[in-house]
Structures are given as C-alpha cells and as structure tokens.
Specification:
With 376 residues, this protein is of the alpha/beta class. It has 2 domains: 5-123, Enolase-like, N-terminal domain (Enolase-like, domain 1), CATH 3.30.390.10; 129-353, Enolase-like C-terminal domain (TIM Barrel, Alpha-Beta Barrel), CATH 3.20.20. It is 40% helix and 20% strand. The protein has helices at residues 66-81, 89-99, 104-122, 126-129, 149-161, 177-191, 207-219, 234-243, 257-265, 276-279, 282-294, 308-318, 332-335, 366-372, and strands at residues 5-22, 27-40, 45-51, 137-139, 142-144, 167-171, 196-200, 224-226, 248-250, 271-274, 298-301, 347-348, 351-353. The protein has a 7-stranded parallel sheet. A 3-stranded antiparallel sheet has the order 1-2-3. A 3-stranded antiparallel sheet has the order 4-13-12, with no helix packed on it. Strand 9, helix 9 and strand 10 (271-274) form a beta-alpha-beta unit. Helix 2 (89-99) runs antiparallel to helix 3 and helix 5 (149-161) runs parallel beside helix 6 (177-191). The two termini are 39 Å apart. Bound molecules: [(2S)-5-oxo-2,5-dihydrofuran-2-yl]acetic acid and magnesium ion. The site of magnesium ion has 6 residues, from loops.
Length: 376
Amino acid sequence: MSATIESLETILVDIPTIRPHKLSMTTMGVQTMVIVRMKDSDGLEGLGEATTIGGLAYGPESPESPESVKLTIDTYFKPQLIGQPAGNINTLRVMLGRSTRGNSLAKSAIETALLDLQGKRLNRPVSDLLGGAVHAHIPVLWTLASGDTAKDIDEALSLIAARRHCDFKLKIGSRPVMDDVRHVAAIKEAVGDQASVRVDVNQAWDEATAAKGMAELQAAGIDLVEQPTPMKDYAALVRLSSKFHLPILADEAVADAKDMYSLAAAGFAGAVAMKIAKAGGPARALEQAMVAQAAGIGLYGGTLLEGTIGTAAALHAWSTLETLHWGTEMFGPLLMKDDIVVKPLRFHDNGVDLPTGAGLGVEIDEDKLAHYRRKG
Ligand code: MUC
Ligand code: MG
C-alpha cells in the first residue's frame, strides 16, 4: 500500500523586501508567502508555496490573498487530501479541480508539495517527474522598480558589472505615459547594448495610450512590452500585436492552457509569461507551454515573486523546455531581505542553477521559519 497523506500545514511567512518594489497597482515593502508542509505516512515531507503581490492588489477579478489561500487549503483542500494515497498526483488534482473552481494559487502550492513529496519518495528531482531537465542553468532577469530613475540606473549597472543579470524589466504605468517613456529611455540609454530592457505596464493603459506608449518605446530600443492593456481585452492585445514589431508579452491575460488557446485563436502574436501560480502548478504551467509552442508564441518563465520554494518549483518546470525565448524572471528570493531555506538558490552568470537533489532540492531552515512566520 503506498504512503498516504497524513498531515497538511499552511504557514504565513512575511519577509521584508530589500527596497520598495513599485508596480502600477501597488508598492511592495514585504512579501507574504503561504508555505505548505505536507507529510505522508512514511514520514516524508513535501513543500509547497503560494504568493501573490500586494495582498489583493494584483491579478484577476476574483483574486486570492495569502490569507485566503491559507483558508482555502485549511478548510476545503485539507479534509479532501488527508488519508489519500500521496503518489497519484493526477487523481488528487482531478479531485481538487472538481470540488473547487479557480483558486489556482492554492492549487499550485498543493501540486508543488505533491511533486516534492513524490520526488523525495523516488529519490529523483521534480524535473525528472516532469520528463527531465534540458537545462541546468536558467537565465534570470531583474526588475528595476525602485520608482527612481537614477537609483534604477545604479542598480542596473552594478548588476551588469557583477554578471548577476543582463536583462531588465521596468515596472511602469502609474505615471503619465510620457513620464514613463522618459524614465525607460534614460535607463536604456545608460545600459546601451549591454542589456535587454523590457517594460511591464500591468494593465494600466487603455488601447490609445498603449499605442502611443508602444510607438515611443519601440523608438527608444525597448525589446518587449508586458500586459499594456486590461487582461480581459483580448481584442486590444491582438490589434496592438499586429500594429508594432515591438513584441507584447501577455501576462495577466493568460492564466492557463485554455486562455493561451483563446488568445492565440483570436490572432495574438507575441510571447506569454507562464506562472505556476496562475496555471495551478508546475505541471499545469507546462500544459500552457505546449499550447503556446504550437501557436508560435514565445515562452517566458514568469513569477509572482515567490520565495525559494515556489521559485525552485517553477525552475524545475522551465528546465524541461527546450527554448525559453525570453528567459525568466525567477529572481523572487533576491528581492527579499532573508530566506527560510538552509541553502539558497545560486544566482550567477545572469541566471540561476537548477537545484539538485530529491524533490525540489530545497530544505526549510526551522529557525528562520519560526522567526518570520506570522504570529497570532
Ligand atoms: C508581474 O506582473 O510580472 C514579476 C516580476 C515583478 O517584478 O513583478 C512580477 C509580476
Ligand atoms: Mg507582469
């Protein structure tokens, strides 16, 4: 008889960011992670994580907050999962999918914990469970979002010199469009050809503003524009993607494989930010990748600024893809002042190493977890 799920604990962890992280909809000073600890009847433990950005500020129309992810798992998922065989991840996924609409963040944390547990049981890395890693070192960009042009330039130049990152994403959309264009153009001018500079508007522009903004950004040498217009407005994304040779990266618009199919079928050309949190887990995110590949849409490994556990889970998934056309943004752990794992991920040479070892290859530092877990 295979091992069964014996316990499931969810823990809210708050870690301050190294500097304010300014997006069009919120400024982050702290990141909250929901850590899942799932134990089986053999005494093995699987880890999972869910994050979002700025409480309820980010994402879809029925967003999940860290607190509501914890409640969903504790109240609705845990009673279904306890006592079930831990080894058949698809059966458990179908069960949760039937009982619960949406809630992709909570589902992603559970799928991650199940994969970690399975990997530990089989003594194989999670990437092997997903078909095997094609890459052991994965490119990672950095987001410049201090809100101050001069600070962003200093940050970019020192990261280029350290060979920590050579691609940068700028968070724009909270200011008038020409203010943003001047900010972006100054950074591109300062880094020149040493770096690829992209922007993320996080849905802040209407279509006319986006057309003006994209024309200016194209002239300034920007490489990619992420989610310029509201997520549901597929027609605007399609029109803008055919108007400019500056490519668009669909982020909030596309959560999973079905969304990817709809946007591609509507005529979108460009790229997609895959996120395990949007899709409902690492395996689900890879389903989306297959649809995007079939439609000729470029792949990019996205983040909801997960800590090391969630970042490692996504890296195992992205490592199985032959081509990540736009690299990844799996820098979440670097934005936080501290970590709750024994061995942090190794970021070097403009990327990160895929963790090795069984499961995710990540171990909790119990003292750090006790220190940062939310009290009361
Ligand atoms: C987003 O919308 O892409 C990813 C990197 C970052 O700085 O914010 C996130 C969310
Ligand atoms: Mg984005």
